[in-house]
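=== Structural record ===
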Amino acid sequence: MVARGAGDVGCAHCTLIGADRACPVCTHLVCERCAADWASCTEPSGRIVRLGLSARVRDIDPGGGLAIVSHWLRHLRLFDLRRLRWISGAPVRASSGRLTGDGRVIFAEWTSTGDARQFEGMRVVDLRGAYERLLTAMEAPARGTAVTATSDIFYYVTETERVGILDGDTSYVVDPLPRKVVQAAYLDGERRLLAAASWSELVLGEVVEGAFAPRSHIKTETAGDVPWLAVAGPRLVAAVKQFGGASRVEVHRLEHGRTIGAVERALDVDALRAASLSRDGRYLAIGDGVELHVHALDTGESTTFTEHTDGINLVRFAGDDHLLISAHTDNRVVLRPRTPAGYARPLIAIDVPGDGVELTARPGTPAS
């Protein structure tokens, strides 16, 4: 018989030898690494995180590891969504910056002379300080900056109502809706599918060798501006803003993966502020005022979450859809893991310690 001492048992989450503390959710013994990463536990328990007075989440990386947070009276900060701690010393200089899954932040750089502004290009900064460079982009961004859920491709609506795409060190501009205002755009990085919208109008096509090849062009069933849309899995979803401020969200089925089919479901939203479509196209999350509605599109079931106390400004499926993150305009972030029955209700409230931690080798991965 072999005697074992403290820490000589396997971690319940990752099976490595060295479990010496209890997981606060499942109570099983885990190692230090897994104890620092709340998402390593498979039990359906989310977190409600309070970031402090005036804190507001501006962006989240595609893997759900890091967030850019602004405050009224202090500089932008990075927050680790796995360790639930502030990051010390990482450079973030623009609230419009977009985080990538491989630890970079990308933002437009401008120079000012008097009342005039000159677009210089896209600044790419490695958050661990390994490099920083300015990439020439063909046109300046006007709105809708984003990073694809896969491939880390940065894209945006340009000042000339086209879509600019920054793929690695290559930049180009495509024109999905010639001579029209592009109100929203969404790029599926895996399939290279680009969806764009104008007034009561949707177009879907492929981006091939720096050019846009349209595959489908339809009118929305509801008349109005289209401020948000997304493409994932077998679906395209578009929010159409109606007179009076309410919106109708149209869920379209994709035919043969490349053309927009008929509306399979329509949802009425009073005050749409943020929305997200899961990467597999099975779940749609909508921030409606202070309520978060999560719709299981395959089954038609819907769940309403009421943990937010202020207007929801960000909703994001992250980490291969394992995590649903929502944030409201003052202070609070809610993290919900995905379970076989849908997305879990958060059970544990977290007050974040004031002292920070170092950025890990890979965003969202605790240090060993």
User: Anything to note?
Assistant: The two ends are 31 Å apart (CA to CA). Confidence is low (pLDDT under 50) at residues 363-368. Residues 45-174+296-352 form one domain. The CA atoms of residues 65 and 364 lie 4 Å apart.
